[in-house]
Amino acid sequence: MDKGENDLNGRYVIEPVAAKGDLQAIGSSLASDSLGFRAAEILDRLRSGIGFRLLAAVLLFSSLVTLTLTALQLYLDYDHEVGVIETRLDEIGRSYLASLGESLWALDQHQLQLQLNGIQRLPGIRAVEIREVIDRPDPIHISVGDRSARASIARDYPLDYMVRGTKRPIGILYVEATLTEVYQHLLNRTLVILASQAAKTFLVSLFILYIFHVLVTRHLVTIAAFVGSYNLARPPPPLQLSRRGPDKPDELDQVADAFNELCANLQRAYGDLQQVNAQLQQDLFVRQKAEQDAQLSEQRFRDYAETASDWFWETGPDHHFTYISERLDAFGIDRAALIGTSRIDTAINSGAEPEKWREHEAVLERHEPFRNFEYTRRDLAGRLRHVSISGRPVFAPDGRFLGYRGTGTDLTEQHETTERLRQSQKMDAIGQLTGGVAHDFNNVLTVITGTIEIIQEGVADRPELAAIAHLIDEAAVRGAEITSQLLTFARRQPLQPREVDINELVLDVCKLLKPMLGEHIEIDTLLASDAWSALADPSQLSAAIVNLAINARDAMPGGGKLVLESANVVIDDAAAFDDGVRAGDFVMIAITDTGQGIPPDIIDRVFEPFFTTKGVGRGTGLGLAMVYGFARQTGGAVKIESEQGRGTVVRLYLPRSEIRAPVKSASAPAIAAIGGQETILVVEDDPLVQGYVIAQLGGLGYKTLIASDAEAALALVDQGAEFDLLFTDVVMPGGMNGRELAEAVLESRPGMKVLYTSGYTDEFVHDGRLDTGVALLRKPYRRADLAQMIREVLSAK
C-alpha cells in the first residue's frame, strides 16, 4: 500500500507531489491544443470524441427511419401491383370460362388453343393450361407457356356445361401470373430511395457534427487542457473560454465558473491535507500489520473448519442462522435464503419425527453442544438432501449466550447408496420367491392345459360342456401368462435377444396402442434420428412398452397425452446410476404421460409384483414388475419419475448392440402331433405331471420308463434299461437336478438324446439367453408342443 492512501477512519489524503500527478491525470486524455482547425487534427479528435459517436447515432437513427419508411412504401406498392394481377385473374374467370366450356364440350381443340394463346398474351400471364376431367380414354390437355414454382400467382377455374338443365363439371382452367416484373420494379425503386436518402442523411449529419464542434467540442478541449496542466504549487490564471459570449451565461460558462471555484477550494484544502498527512503515515503501518494478522487468523480458522466438514455456520441467540459458509452453494442449497431462518423451518421431516426434534430443541435451550444431528431438507432442484450437523454454544466474556457455531456435512450420497443396495436386495429376494412360486404353478398348469385338450375332444358334441371346457382353457392360458410375467420379473425367463431398431419397433407398437388406449388418449413420438440399435428380445420389449402404455392410460381416465421418446445415453458412472448396471452405451426409451402421477410414499414399491393401486379385478400388479425384470435381465435398467397432478415418465435403458446378432429365420410351420415307437425315460417328481406325461406319450405310441428322481433314473441306467430319449424335469428333490442327471447319463451312454422340461429355467439361462445346444420344453405345454419337441430331438443329428 502506497503512502498517503488512507487513514484509520477511512479518509483519503494526498501528498503534494501525488496531488499534482492526480490532477494532471484527470484531463490528460482530453488535453490538446485548442487553436487551429487543421483538417487532420480535427479528424483525429472526432474519431476519439463524442462528435464521432453523435455522427454514428444520427446516421443509425436516420438509416432506421429511412429503411422503415422505404419498407412501408414498398409494401404498399407490392400490395397494389399484386391487386392489379389478382383483378386481371378475376377478369379472366369472368370473361373466358363460358366460351372455354363450350369449346371443351365441343372438343374443339383448335378453338381452345386460340383462346389459351389470347389469355397468355395478357400482361403478366406466364402460363395457361386446360384439362378435361370427363372419364374417357383420351381426355384433352392443352397448355401454353411454362409453369414456375417461384414468383407467381396461380388460379384453378372449374369449367362447367349445362346439359338438360344440369350443370356438369367437364374441365379445369389453370392460369399462372408472374411476379417477376413486380419484384424488378420494387428493386429499382428501393435502390433509388436508399441512394437519395443516404446522401441526404450523410450531408445533414456532417453539418450537425460541424456545428457541435464549433459550439461545444472545442471548448471542452480547452477545459481539458486547463485541468490537465493545473498545478497546486503554481496555480494558473482563472479559466477563460475563447468565444463570443451569449447574452446570458450558458452551460459552458457555468462549467468554467465551477472549475474556477473548484480550484480555489483545492488550494484551501491543500494546506489542511499537509498537516494531517504526516500523522497518518505513522498510523497506516500499524493498521496494515493488524489487518494482516487478522486475515491470517481468519484463513487458518476457515481451513481447519472446511477440512473437517462440508460447510460451517453460525446462529444467534434465537437459533436463526446469521452466517453460512459459501461452500453450501455447491450442494444446491440457497445460502442467502437461509440467513434469518431456523433449522427447523428448513427441515422437511420435523413433523414425522417430533420426539427427535423436541430433544434437539431442548439441547439448544440448555445451551449444550451436540454432534451428528441428522435431518432432511430439499435443495433448489427439489432433491432430498440428508444433512448431519454438529455445533457448540458461544458465550460472551460476561457469560451472555450469543448463539451456536458449528459444521455441516452432506450425507445424501451415502444414504442413496445404502437405499439402492437395500432396494436391490429386496427385489432380488422377491424375485427368487416369485420364481419358485412360478415353478410350482407351472406344474399345475401343465396338467390343466394338457388334460383340458382331452376333455375338449370328448365333449365336442356337447356345446354346454364344450363352453365350460373352453373357459377352463382360457383360465389356464391366463395363468400361464401370469407365471410368464413372474418369471420375467425374477429374471428367469429365457430371452431371444437380437439387434433391434428401436425407432421402428416403437412406431410398430404405436400402431397397436391407438385402438388399445382409445381416442381420448393422444399418442405422440419424439424419436432421435440417430438412435442406436439395441440388443434385446423384441417381443418382450414390445410387451414392456404396451404394459407401460396401459398403466399410463389408467392414470389418465379423463384423457391426456402419451409421448414415446428415444435417445442415446452414455452412462459413465454406472454404480451411481443403478446397482448391477455396467457403464457403457445405452438406448433410452421414455414413456411420458400427463396423468395423475404417483404418490411419493409408494413410488419405491411400484416395481414389486402384485403391488397395485387399482381396484379389485382391474389388474394383477405384474405389469411394472415384468418391465423391471426384463430390463435387468437384458443388462439395462428402468427408472421412474413422477409428480402428483403433473404426470409420470418411465425411462427404459437397453444396452447398445455392438455386434449384429444373427436374426432368426422364420419359424417353420407347426408340426402335427406325430408319435413314434421309441422308448422314453421320463424323470418327473410331481405325480400329477408324471401321470399326464405318461398318458400323453402312451397316446402318441411311445413306450415309457418312469423315475421320480435322479437316483431312481440312474438305477434304471445301471440295470441296463434301454431307452432312446431322456425326458427330465430340471428342478427335482434329492440333491441332483435334471442337468446333473443328464451329464451322468451321457457319461455312460454318449450321444443319448436329452429333452429338458421346467417351469423355472434358471439352470439354463445366462445373461438372459438359453444356453446353446439345450433342448427345453417350457411348462406349461400342450400335447402338440410335447409331440413336436420329442420328434425334433429324436430326429436331430
Automatic annotation (TrEMBL):
<protein>
    <recommendedName>
        <fullName>histidine kinase</fullName>
        <ecNumber>2.7.13.3</ecNumber>
    </recommendedName>
</protein>
<dbReference type="Pfam" id="PF00512">
    <property type="entry name" value="HisKA"/>
</dbReference>
<keyword id="KW-0472">Membrane</keyword>
<feature type="domain" description="HAMP">
    <location>
        <begin position="249"/>
        <end position="271"/>
    </location>
</feature>
<dbReference type="InterPro" id="IPR011006">
    <property type="entry name" value="CheY-like_superfamily"/>
</dbReference>
<dbReference type="Pfam" id="PF17149">
    <property type="entry name" value="CHASE5"/>
</dbReference>
<dbReference type="Pfam" id="PF02518">
    <property type="entry name" value="HATPase_c"/>
</dbReference>
<dbReference type="InterPro" id="IPR003594">
    <property type="entry name" value="HATPase_dom"/>
</dbReference>
<dbReference type="Pfam" id="PF00072">
    <property type="entry name" value="Response_reg"/>
</dbReference>
<dbReference type="InterPro" id="IPR013656">
    <property type="entry name" value="PAS_4"/>
</dbReference>
<keyword id="KW-0067">ATP-binding</keyword>
<dbReference type="InterPro" id="IPR036890">
    <property type="entry name" value="HATPase_C_sf"/>
</dbReference>
<dbReference type="InterPro" id="IPR036097">
    <property type="entry name" value="HisK_dim/P_sf"/>
</dbReference>
<feature type="domain" description="PAC">
    <location>
        <begin position="371"/>
        <end position="423"/>
    </location>
</feature>
<dbReference type="Pfam" id="PF08448">
    <property type="entry name" value="PAS_4"/>
</dbReference>
<feature type="transmembrane region" description="Helical">
    <location>
        <begin position="54"/>
        <end position="76"/>
    </location>
</feature>
<keyword id="KW-0597">Phosphoprotein</keyword>
<keyword id="KW-0812">Transmembrane</keyword>
<keyword id="KW-0808">Transferase</keyword>
<dbReference type="InterPro" id="IPR004358">
    <property type="entry name" value="Sig_transdc_His_kin-like_C"/>
</dbReference>
<keyword id="KW-0418">Kinase</keyword>
<dbReference type="InterPro" id="IPR003660">
    <property type="entry name" value="HAMP_dom"/>
</dbReference>
<dbReference type="InterPro" id="IPR003661">
    <property type="entry name" value="HisK_dim/P_dom"/>
</dbReference>
<dbReference type="InterPro" id="IPR001610">
    <property type="entry name" value="PAC"/>
</dbReference>
<dbReference type="InterPro" id="IPR005467">
    <property type="entry name" value="His_kinase_dom"/>
</dbReference>
<dbReference type="InterPro" id="IPR000700">
    <property type="entry name" value="PAS-assoc_C"/>
</dbReference>
<keyword id="KW-1133">Transmembrane helix</keyword>
<dbReference type="GO" id="GO:0000155">
    <property type="term" value="F:phosphorelay sensor kinase activity"/>
</dbReference>
<dbReference type="GO" id="GO:0005524">
    <property type="term" value="F:ATP binding"/>
</dbReference>
<dbReference type="InterPro" id="IPR000014">
    <property type="entry name" value="PAS"/>
</dbReference>
<dbReference type="InterPro" id="IPR001789">
    <property type="entry name" value="Sig_transdc_resp-reg_receiver"/>
</dbReference>
<feature type="domain" description="Response regulatory">
    <location>
        <begin position="679"/>
        <end position="794"/>
    </location>
</feature>
<feature type="domain" description="Histidine kinase">
    <location>
        <begin position="436"/>
        <end position="658"/>
    </location>
</feature>
<dbReference type="GO" id="GO:0016020">
    <property type="term" value="C:membrane"/>
</dbReference>
<dbReference type="InterPro" id="IPR033414">
    <property type="entry name" value="Sensor_dom"/>
</dbReference>
<feature type="modified residue" description="4-aspartylphosphate">
    <location>
        <position position="729"/>
    </location>
</feature>
<dbReference type="InterPro" id="IPR035965">
    <property type="entry name" value="PAS-like_dom_sf"/>
</dbReference>
<keyword id="KW-0547">Nucleotide-binding</keyword>
